[in-house]
Amino acid sequence: MRAITVTEPGGPQQLQWSEVPTPSPAEGEVLVKTIAVGVNRADLLQRQGHYPPPRGISDVMGLEATGTVAELGKGVTGMSVGDEVVCLLAGGAYAEYFVVPTGQCIAVPQGVDVVTAAGLVEVAATVVSNMDGVGLEAGETLLVHGGAGGIGTFAIQYAKALGCRVLTTAGSKAKLEHCRAMGADVAIDYHDDWVAAVKEATDGQGADVILDVMGAKYLELNVDALATAGRLVIIGMQGGVKGTLNIGKLLSKRALVTATSLRFRPVEEKVAICQRVAEVVWPMIADGRIKPAPETRIPLKEARRAHEQLAGGENIGKIILVA
């Protein structure tokens, strides 16, 4: 089979369309023929050498995909060759075939094109697991950074479906308009004093929960923007990995700072998260409460172009590679 490989860590030019061995499914796994692959910023980090896969996982990139089951591993029941599935992976999807534990495969959501579905499961699993983890509730205020991306587009709609008020940041007029169209109550240009804007929008209280993709760059600012007993959830490192934190301010607010990675969780945890997505999110998509993000489709073998577009910072919604 062919796959996107990385000759050595670096820029998009390091991505190559190469011949590699077709993987074989282990016990409890299936081999899937790829239909489409969602592109995530984690892929860019891996290409640069900053986010290697867990031990024993393919070094081919790709954390979410759709495809048809091509082969069953030993002991697999409840699935058949030819089934269309949406898959959450620890790696390996930038390829014509990939292997995945059966519990990390769920049905394509009702009414959604199988290519579009490839860009849904990673964002849904990330947002739902993290909002469950910090107990986001109806009536609370959620601040979402990067509201125009795949994560942000989903998080805005999911929080609104839960009955929350949503504030978001983005960096251009088009992106701010997109956030409002997705349901954001307040959309803030991050080039401005967004902490002050959050305070103003919440009558000085701050956000109950912040979903952050920036990491170090926003650490202290996020704590400033938190409400008393607020919860900061860090899921990305676009703004660096090392920051400073005023512990006194954190103590005075009785606030929580947590950071999570979906990729390195044990299989059983990812299986439970996938089932949660199928049970909670897929019905929201079927009845229109959540709409898929705008998408750009690019051939899988042109993954270099996809990485360049995502890194450029102008993309709205999701980039999907089509096999």
Structural notes for this entry:
Residues 10-321 form the Enoyl reductase (ER) domain. Pfam families: ADH_N, ADH_zinc_N. Keywords: NADP, Oxidoreductase. Its EC number is 1.6.5.5. It is an enzyme of class 1 (oxidoreductase). The chain has 323 residues and is α/β, with parallel strands linked by helices. The protein has two domains: 2-120 and 263-322, Medium-chain alcohol dehydrogenases, catalytic domain (Quinone Oxidoreductase, Chain A, domain 1); 123-259, Rossmann fold (3-Layer(aba) Sandwich), CATH 3.40.50.720. It has helices at residues 41-47, 114-117, 121-134, 150-162, 173-181, 194-201, 219-225, 247-253, 267-286, 303-311; strands at residues 2-6, 15-19, 29-38, 64-72, 84-88, 97-101, 105-106, 141-145, 165-170, 186-189, 207-212, 226-234, 256-259, 295-299, 318-322. Strands 3, 4, 5, 6, 7, 14 and 15 form a seven-stranded mixed beta sheet that branches. A six-stranded parallel beta sheet has the order 10-9-8-11-12-13, with helices on both faces. A two-stranded antiparallel ribbon has the order 1-2. Strand 8 (141-145), helix 4 (150-162) and strand 9 form a beta-alpha-beta unit. Helix 6 runs parallel beside helix 7. The longest helix has 20 residues, at 267-286. The model has no long low-confidence stretch (mean pLDDT 96).
